[in-house]
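Practice problem: predict the structure.
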Amino acid sequence: MQTYQLLIDLAAPQRIRIGKLGEFDFPAGRYIYTGSARRYLEARIARHLSATKKLHWHIDFLLTAATARVIDVLRFAREECEVNQRTAGKIWIAGFGASDCRAGCGGHLKHLSNE
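Answer:
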């Protein structure tokens, strides 16, 4: 398993529908999303960074918001939940990106700041 984090800047507040989770208000600021891939990590990251994609994962919905942009990508040799649990920030939406999480993370998207 390969783990990555996307550091996301949301330049303006947005109300975004996140698939079946529903609609949520996102204040402007920085967010960090922790994900993983069993194989083809770079292809997964490239897909997230692509402007044209089917909306499949929770993160896809956030990244297609008008003012969202990925400002950094971090890669780890540790398990996804371990990386997520060691990352500061407030879980923004319960269950976001964590539908298969069995470690009790609560969510894999964290709000870092309002900068």
